[in-house]
Please model this.
Amino acid sequence: MATIVGSVMTSHVPSIGNAIAKHRENDPYWKPFFDGYPPVRAWLDRVKPDVAVVFYQDHGLNFFLDKMPTFAVGAAPEYRNADEGWGIPTVKPVKGDPALSWHIIESLVADEFDITMCQEMKVDHALTLPLALMWPGGGDWPVRVVPITMNHVQHPLPSPKRSYRLGESVGRAIASWKEDVRVLVMGTGGLSHQLDGQRAGFINKPFDLMCMDALVDDPKKLTRYSALDLVREAGAQGTELMAWMAARAALPGRVTKVHSHYHVPISNTAGGLLALQNDGAALARAA
Amino acid sequence: MGGKQRDYGIPGTPIFDGHMAQKGYALNAMCYSFNSADNRAAFKADEDAYCRKFGLNDEQRSAVANRNVLELIAAGGNIYYLAKFAGIFGLDVQDVGAQQTGMTKDAFKAMLLEAGR
Model:
């Protein structure tokens, strides 16, 4: 049976891609951000996931406003990155796990989530940069992926409560997968930031830190917010917190915090990182 | 498709809803096309022709000509697609933020640093 090793939630700001490509990880501006990642990489080296199920939003690479799914699940053998128009380098393709994708899709639809199914899907920085942060060096990606996109481009957005329930349902789907694979659940985006309007540059550190704490011990508490509440508290693009909530919700039992990190600013954004170990999986392995 | 954006009661914060998505469709379609380097080059070579091809209305055409982000948003532009437009001119989201808040880029960056304290 499949095992969920844990969850990693991280920001995915596009400029991280340029910093990596230009080897700026130790520049004074970038070092306080990149310094957060080595403990999480060390943990990943120990738990060795085979597959990453990744919750994120597509920022206008794969989806346009002509057809905008609220939630979409990729079921492709391979996912390609491509030119996103804002000048970050394209990274190598990522292998998929179509059998697990279809299992998740069947399970979600049986659970009454009316998701969109995609046999072709380009993946943008929101999927590729978190992989590059976890497994740097430019070698082959050590994981296959199942991409799950959430609409944060066009209102009405899904609610935090619905996003959380989606994560719970995906967690149940993975737990019932017959293959003996180790699965990491990732949620990418955020934390607080706003790119548009006279309030551009808005960051809310107390709110972010409250959310990061809640995601460890009391994640359901965050489901009382509406999408517009998140816009108000975390900025217009801070609604990406919902991807973190979905990734957290996939872990049903007790968790242990592996590491967390928070640094402001990266570009216009509060950079956050949180890694949680699924205690149930750790106990099963020890037995 | 005209009219003002619905007020969601969050100051300084445009909400890209169905009304705006419908109003801004042509503008956003043009900006989405800038995922392609060939299309970015075509825009730079003949901006007028490129805007005509996508059927921009007068408000959108003027906002594009002015390189004015708040005008582009008012004309229905979504910030993620507009960022691709800004990329043509080598502008990043801090340039875009500085312009919208009426700050210098240095002042905008200082504000972000302050938010982290």
